[in-house]
Structure formats: structure tokens, C-alpha cells
Specification:
- This protein has 13 helices and 23 strands.
- It has 498 residues and is of the alpha+beta class.
């Protein structure tokens, strides 16, 4: 059978949030973009809790604000936690963060099969050539750069696409990322496994926090509790990979066992029943939770979302990092195709910003784990920064910081431990002073938002959200030393005006 060949500007592999984001923002600049998705949407996916920067920043750039509102997703005002030394649940509220206050101080809890479908259909409406049930079989490359891909369509017909750029947004299970010639490195700090399912009839937190994600620590790990609708709840336990063998047996019993050992979630599910049919009727697992690639790009190819990196989901960073990377990749590709910025310069900015965002969340989440003190628990004792091997710390710190970040990377284990311990102590102290969920939110939250590690996490999310709300009136200084800044429409890079 002969291969059908064509030429385009960009081919994007993967129709999730990262792939839909980058393809839409490229098409909005007039480029010919083909998006290849191996499945037929809508399809199931985990990662259901969003952050405001995705909804009000990326969402507005994509033009899906009204569609998201019409979908009637559960409104999320923040996160609620039974974590750390504070004996009562406490809130992390978006509304009292200076960067996230006002009418955009919320996000959504989403059924990903619906959310992802909205983004993919929007990409098609904006001019992207979306081809579902298309399986990539080969990346075309030579010593200089990646030149395109080969794939088979739903009828088994082989195709070849030559493109100026290939974007790999194909997720954590695909092996396409190997074509950037980098190595995927897993974090020893977050070496976890998750088991999760769905329940009908679970209780809700008191209003106005009823839409919040609840994360509760227990001896063997922690549990998420995400209200997807008035009745449907996503529930998952994040535990040590040493439990993997147990999960090969009765998964129903395993999940129930973890829930029963977490009092607050056990109580919320006391009158609930697990969904056993349809899309949500399966108990699922996911391994190797946190990793990063040693390189996010090579000439002609760039990694986006889970193809590049992933980190523990306790603060709902998955979709944020994917759509953020999609935005960065679109800015870089748009700049190169327009002839405004060299490929090396554009992707140095991409990789520097992407690694910085991953690093600040990695440090924040390391501090968050570290403050959950339980010396009698293997899970929590193993996740103290001071208990990690120095060589493991140094190796992963180098990758997290990267050589493109424009910042001094902590490659000395002692310095890294000291930095993470400082962040953990500051975060633990702030949480200790937040009080309960009944305390006035402003009084409760200013301690958290005053800690350096939280402020750093907020920086780029704030920039994205302001860009989405204010458009061309938004002002951004370079994030990296001698770095680039977004164009007025936010879709490409430009040099800072002197």
C-alpha cells in the first residue's frame, strides 16, 4: 500500500489539553496545523481538578470561556486539606491570593472526557486539522533535526507528514518523547502509585467550599476527594510503590482499605456506593508519578505536558503544566515561523520557563510532603528530604533546575536539603496559623501567601491569568535573566522594549 504524503507547518501528536492548546494558538496565527489523536473523543482521562490560570488565562486565549461556563462544571474555590500538624481541615483559597482575586478567583472540577472534548472541538473550529483514531508509527528525523512523522489512520492507511515542527503531546505512556534524544528520570522523592475509582452519593464540604478538592493525609499516603457533580465523586489513594503487589489482587478491597484508614474520607463516603458500570465503573491505577526529561526539545521537535514531565497531583498541577507548556511551545514556534526569533533563542526561552515552573512546584510539593511529620509511617518517613540519598538529590536537582533556567541550580545536596527544609518550615508555620475552615478567610490565608515558596509558585500563574483577562494591556517583565517577553496578543515572543 502506497503512503500518502503531505507538507504542513506543524504536526501535533496528542489531543489532550496540551496538544489542543498549542495547536489552537498556532492556528490562530494562520499556520497549517495537523493534530493526530490515537483515540476517538470523548474518552476517559484522569486529572480532573483545574487551577484558575488554566480556566481564566489559557481558556480566554483559546476562546473557550463561554463553552466552559455552559458545561456547568463544579466550581472550585480552592483546596481543603487535612495535612500537617494542624489537627483540623484548612483551606487554600484562590480568592484571597492577591494574584487570583476578583471575579476570576475560581476554577473547575471537570470530567476530563467533557473538558478535553471542548478543547479539541475548539481547536478544530479555530482551523486545526484534527484527525482522530490516528496512530503515529514513526518520527522522521536525521542528524540535524526532526522532519515529520508517519502514521496510520482509522482504516489502516499509512500517511507521511513533513513539517517544520513536531509537537509531542502524546502523554506519559507514549515513547515518541525518546526522539528528542533525552532521558526520562524519575524522582525518588515522589515515587508513588495511585489507585482510584468513582462514587455516587458522597458527602460535600459545607458551602461555599462544597466544590473544593479535599486532600487528606493518612499513615500510608494521602487521598484525594474531588466532587465532579452534586453526586459523583472521584476518590483516589496515593501510596508508596511498595504496595504495587497488593494492587494486583482485589483492587476493590485495596481501595476500600485505604479509604477506611483515612477517617475524614471514610466519613464522607459512609452512605456512598462505588460506580461499577460505564466510563467510571472501573478501578484504575497509575504508576511512576513524578518524572522529568533531561531535554524538552531538539531542532524540529518539542515535548509538551506529560510527554515532558509530571509531578505529584496533590495541588492539581497536571493540566496547568500541560496547557502552560502548550502556550510556551506555541509562542516559540510562532516566533520561529515568523522569522522574528531564532530557533535556539525561542526554545531556550521555552525550556527555561518550563523547567522553572516545574522546579517551583517541585520545591513547593517537596515542602508540603516534608511538613507531614509521622516518624511511625514508612510512607512519610521516606518522603522527608533529609532521608534521601545525596546522589539522587543532586541528579534530580540538576534536571529540575536545568541549564536553561537562568537561575542558579542547586546541584549540591546539602544546599538543596537546606533550601527545601527552609521552605518546609515556612510552609508548616503558615499552615499552623491558618486556623480552621471557620476562620475568616483573609485572616486565615495571608500567612500562606506570605511564604516565599507559595509566592514563587504564584508568579507565572498570575502572569497567565492577567494576560487572559487584560489581553494586550497586560505587562510582563522578562521571567528569566535577559529573557524574552510575550507579544501583545500573548501568542509569540519579543525582545523586551528598552
Amino acid at each position: 500500500m502506497s503512503t500518502l504524503a503531505e507538507n504542513v507547518d506543524v504536526v501535533v501528536v496528542g489531543g489532550g489539553p496540551g496538544g489542543s492548546t498549542v495547536s489552537t494558538l498556532l492556528a490562530q496565527r494562520g499556520h497549517r496545523v495537523v493534530l493526530l489523536e490515537k483515540e476517538k473523543f470523548p474518552r476517559y482521562q484522569i486529572g480532573e481538578s483545574l487551577l484558575p490560570s488554566t480556566v481564566h488565562g489559557i481558556g480566554r486565549l483559546l476562546g473557550v470561556t463561554e463553552e466552559l461556563e455552559k458545561a456547568a462544571f463544579t466550581v472550585k474555590r480552592g483546596g481543603s486539606f487535612r495535612w500537617g500538624t494542624n489537627p483540623v481541615p484548612w483551606n487554600f483559597l484562590f480568592a484571597v491570593a492577591p494574584e487570583l482575586s476578583g471575579p476570576t478567583s475560581y476554577a473547575y472540577q471537570v470530567e476530563r472526557m467533557k473538558f478535553d472534548d471542548i478543547l479539541l472541538r475548539n481547536a478544530a473550529a479555530k482551523g486545526v486539522d484534527v484527525r482522530e483514531e490516528s496512530q503515529v508509527t514513526e518520527v522522521i528525523a536525521d542528524d540535524e533535526r526532526v522532519r515529520g512523522i508517519r502514521y496510520t489512520d482509522s482504516e489502516g492507511v499509512p500517511h507521511e507528514i513533513r513539517a517544520s515542527f513536531v509537537v509531542d503531546a502524546s502523554g506519559n505512556r507514549s515513547r515518541i518523547h525518546q526522539n528528542v534524544r533525552g532521558e526520562r528520570i524519575y524522582s525518588d522523592f515522589f515515587k508513588n502509585i495511585a489507585i482510584f475509582g468513582y462514587f455516587e452519593g458522597g458527602q460535600r464540604l459545607p458551602a461555599p467550599d462544597s466544590g473544593n478538592i479535599l486532600c487528606a493525609a493518612f499513615d500510608e499516603g494521602w487521598i484525594w476527594y474531588i466532587p465532579l457533580s452534586d453526586t459523583l465523586t472521584s476518590v483516589g489513594a496515593v501510596i508508596s510503590r511498595e504496595h504495587a503487589a497488593k494492587l494486583q489482587g482485589d483492587q476493590e478491597q485495596s481501595l476500600r482499605g485505604f479509604i477506611d484508614r483515612c477517617e475524614i474520607v471514610k466519613g464522607f463516603l459512609s452512605g456512598a456506593t462505588r460506580v461499577t458500570e460505564g466510563t467510571y465503573g472501573e478501578i484504575r491505577t497509575r504508576k511512576d508519578y513524578s518524572y522529568t526529561n533531561s531535554s524538552f526539545h531538539r531542532p524540529g521537535m518539542v515535548l509538551v505536558g506529560d510527554a515532558a514531565c509530571f509531578i505529584d497531583p496533590v495541588f492539581s498541577t497536571g493540566v496547568h503544566l500541560s496547557t502552560y507548556a502548550g502556550l510556551l511551545a506555541a509562542r516559540s514556534i510562532n516566533s520561529v515561523l515568523a522569522g522574528d526569533i531564532s530557533e535556539d533563542r525561542a526554545f531556550e526561552e521555552f525550556e527555561g520557563r518550563y523547567r522553572r515552573e516545574y522546579r517551583v512546584f517541585y520545591e513547593f510539593l517537596s515542602a508540603f510532603y516534608d511538613m507531614q511529620s509521622n516518624e511511625d509511617s514508612y510512607f512519610w518517613k521516606a518522603r522527608k528530604v533529609t532521608n534521601l540519598e545525596a546522589t539522587d538529590l543532586e541528579a534530580f536537582a540538576t534536571l529540575v533546575g536545568g541549564v536553561h533556567s537562568g537561575e542558579q541550580a542547586f546541584t549540591n545536596a546539602g544546599a538543596l536539603v537546606e533550601e527545601f527544609q527552609k521552605s518546609s518550615a515556612g510552609l508548616a508555620d503558615a499552615v499552623e496559623r491558618t486556623g480552621s475552615m471557620q476562620t475568616e478567610s483573609g485572616e486565615r490565608m495571608h500567612h500562606l501567601f506570605g511564604t516565599p515558596v507559595v509566592r514563587e509558585v504564584m508568579t507565572e500563574m498570575n502572569n497567565i491569568q492577567v494576560r487572559g483577562v487584560r489581553g494586550a494591556d497586560a505587562f510582563e517583565a522578562p521571567l528569566l535573566e535577559a529573557g524574552l517577553v510575550p507579544s501583545p496578543d500573548g501568542l509569540s515572543w519579543t525582545e523586551e522594549a528598552k
